[in-house]
Design brief:
The chain is of the alpha/beta class. It has two domains: 6-181, Flavin prenyltransferase-like (Rossmann fold, 3-Layer(aba) Sandwich); 189-395, Rossmann fold, CATH 3.40.50.10300. It contains 14 helices and 21 strands. Helix 1 (20-29) runs parallel beside helix 3, helix 1 (20-29) crosses helix 9 and helix 10 (214-225) crosses helix 14 (378-394). The structure holds ligand PMT.
Length: 396
């Protein structure tokens, strides 16, 4: 996604400027050509030499600097850009951009470029919340700029509030998202479920499973990058929310059922990667169960089968987590749950299924076509599933 792309990384005068080194490094490692443009005040926080060493490219700090590769034709940068990212962006630069002021290399570049612009604000919380900054932010959004962050946390002043620069991975993810907009799922609405539901036993205990959510999150991110409008319905995981998707957090199978029923109204496809508990305790103890007896018997009842019960005119994709007779069992689920496509998931190998970063799956459609995929990363598996979703949607 980032390979061979020209990313203009604008750095402005915030204490968070040192984090731009990490952003530049990760972008460079991903194969992007990173052109750094620093405002004068940014150079007080981090040296151009650091950025030059990381990117192996000259760093632009002064539009009148004759030694600069871009000094005469600074608009060249704007034209070369596939994307412009300002991280960190101060309240000052946001105000200048909102007003169209172009008094340094960075603001000139933004004004001159036709590339998408991403702004990652970082400032004191009260400056961010000031109505002037909020108006400027609204103007930038209205101009189509993508805003990432800020996040809530400890600020340079030592106080805690909304003003921290978004995490590097979130910024990089947003760049990937912006660069890939307008692909084969544009204007499609995709609902993805992820993670393992938790069925409470008492206020502190639950029945759960080992789903990490990685497969579902990979699907949500891949669909988003292909232009889809993504709703991710997730049981508890430790994964960061994918930027640019609408995330609905649930705990139990019953909550997931309700969220799915709401989300599929107007959806084009539902992809159920979640490991939904098949059973839940018949009753939930109001207080913590005491360990007074040597054994404890829980009565379990079936959870709702979400895929079978959800109705509507959308494409239905299910998973089948199987440890034996994988294809035969998955085919039965495809028929029983009336799916368009099922992803038979071999969970016997530690490199596949629950918790792993890779997965080994077989895709089976309702015409009985079977496609056995090799061991791939979950992101690659997600794209292979979405390839099938795209072609199935085209036939509807
Ligand atoms: O989250 P990871 O760690 O990345 O692991 C990924 C995964 C192994 C969880 C995933 O790839 C996977 O196989 N998900 C489906 C797990 C599962 O519950 O399979 P199943 O065979 O029990 O269910 C079949 C299908 O019915 C699934 O799409 C499931 O979401 C759905 N289902 C199941 C039970 C239920 N009550 N309602 C459902 O809708």
């Amino acid at each position: 996604m980032l390979a061979n792309k020209t990313v203009i990384l604008g750095i402005t005068g915030s204490l968070a400027a040192y984090k731009a080194a990490d952003i530049a490094s990760k972008l460079t490692q991903a194969g992007a050509r990173v052109e750094v443009v620093m405002t004068e005040s940014a150079t007080k926080f981090i040296t151009p030499l650091t950025l030059r060493s990381i990117t192996s490219r000259p760093v632009v700090t002064d539009m009148f600097e004759l030694a600069s590769e871009f000094s005469i034709e600074h608009v060249a940068l704007a034209e070369a850009a596939d994307v412009v990212v300002i991280a960190p962006a101060t309240a000052c630069v946001m105000a200048k951009l909102a007003a169209g002021i172009s008094d340094d290399e960075l603001t000139c570049t933004v004004l001159a470029t036709e590339a998408p612009v991403i702004v990652a604000p970082a400032m004191h919380a009260s400056m961010f919340q000031n109505s002037v900054t909020q108006q400027n932010l609204a103007k930038l959004k209205a101009r189509g700029f993508t805003i990432v962050g800020p996040e809530y946390g400890r600020l340079a002043s030592g106080k805690v509030g909304l003003g921290r620069l978004a995490e590097t991975d979130k910024i990089i993810d947003t760049i990937g998202q912006v660069l890939s907009q307008g692909r084969d799922l544009t204007s499609k609405r995709i609902v993805v479920t992820a993670g393992g539901t938790q069925e409470p036993i008492d206020p502190v205990r639950h029945i759960g499973n080992r789903s990490s959510g990685k497969m579902g999150y990979a699907l949500a991110e891949a669909a988003r990058n292909r232009g889809a409008e993504v709703k991710l319905i997730t049981a508890p995981t430790s994964l960061p929310e994918p930027v640019g998707t609408e995330v609905v957090s649930v705990k139990t199978a019953a909550e997931m059922k309700e969220a799915v029923a709401r989300a599929v109204i107007q959806a084009d496809a539902l992809i159920m990667a979640a490991a939904v508990a098949d059973y839940q305790p018949k009753s939930v103890a109001e207080a913590k169960i005491k360990k007074e007896t040597p054994t404890l018997t829980l009565e379990l009842i079936r959870t709702p089968d979400i895929l079978t019960e959800v109705k509507g005119n959308f494409l239905k994709v299910g998973f089948a987590a199987e440890s034996q007779n994988i294809v035969a069992n998955a085919k039965q689920k495809l028929e029983r749950k009336q799916l368009d496509l099922i992803v038979a998931n071999d969970i016997t190998d530690p490199s596949s299924g629950f918790g792993a970063d890779t997965n080994k799956v077989t895709l089976i459609d309702k015409q009985g076509n079977v496609e056995d995929l090799p061991l791939l990363t979950k992101r690659e598996v997600a794209d292979r599933i979405l390839d099938r979703v795209v072609s199935l949607l085209a036939k509807r």
